[in-house]
From TrEMBL:
<keyword id="KW-0547">Nucleotide-binding</keyword>
<keyword id="KW-1133">Transmembrane helix</keyword>
<protein>
    <recommendedName>
        <fullName>Protein kinase domain-containing protein</fullName>
    </recommendedName>
</protein>
<dbReference type="GO" id="GO:0005634">
    <property type="term" value="C:nucleus"/>
</dbReference>
<feature type="transmembrane region" description="Helical">
    <location>
        <begin position="138"/>
        <end position="157"/>
    </location>
</feature>
<dbReference type="Pfam" id="PF00069">
    <property type="entry name" value="Pkinase"/>
</dbReference>
<keyword id="KW-0472">Membrane</keyword>
<dbReference type="GO" id="GO:0004674">
    <property type="term" value="F:protein serine/threonine kinase activity"/>
</dbReference>
<dbReference type="InterPro" id="IPR000719">
    <property type="entry name" value="Prot_kinase_dom"/>
</dbReference>
<dbReference type="GO" id="GO:0005524">
    <property type="term" value="F:ATP binding"/>
</dbReference>
<keyword id="KW-0418">Kinase</keyword>
<keyword id="KW-0812">Transmembrane</keyword>
<feature type="domain" description="Protein kinase">
    <location>
        <begin position="1"/>
        <end position="217"/>
    </location>
</feature>
<keyword id="KW-0067">ATP-binding</keyword>
<keyword id="KW-0808">Transferase</keyword>
<dbReference type="InterPro" id="IPR011009">
    <property type="entry name" value="Kinase-like_dom_sf"/>
</dbReference>
<keyword id="KW-0723">Serine/threonine-protein kinase</keyword>
Amino acid sequence: MNMQQRFTTQRVLSPALYGEILLCHDNATNEQVVIKKIDQGASASRKTVQRQRVVLEDTRFEQFVNKTLHEEGGHPNVLTMQTMFAADGYDHFVFEYCNRGALFDVMEDATDKQLDPYYIAPEVFDNVAPYDPSKADVWSLGIILFLLLTGVPLVNLPSKMDESYMFLSRFGLKKLIQGWELEDFVSDDAANLLEKMLCINPNQRCTLQEVAQHPYVLRRT
């Protein structure tokens, strides 16, 4: 049984930048898996399949990271890539299937590779091309952290149409925290990290590596 015969596609879960996310049946193990199917041409040209937008996502680096995690025994908080193969001009990354939890719900409900608007980075919302997906992820993680700490979303839209976003853009996060009287929920070191993550200008936004090395994170790992 070759790799193409091994997996039977059941349905499309979500579009992806260079292809799509598929729910599949593994005929060898009789289990469900998720396959990220990547158009090799789109990946090489760094252009999205649906909108032909130039992005900076590097699938070779993604492959390297997933392969390294797999060889090191995986991580309890990261879906494990079981195998990978190429066929008919597509790369296929095969992951374990997570059938519970919010991440699955997001993938299930996604129709345009977008999260709810208040998670989207400003440069993504404004359709700036090219943009750095890792910097956009930092913004989204900052929005999630703010929501976890305070219980309220920071903005409804990362747009000039949104009053909170405009206040953030003009006065900064600490002023917003003070104005909303959230000091009891956001410590000084958390506010410092959030300010670095939620810079409007992605070039001034911190990296994922800098997030991981921030004192607020290190004290909790």
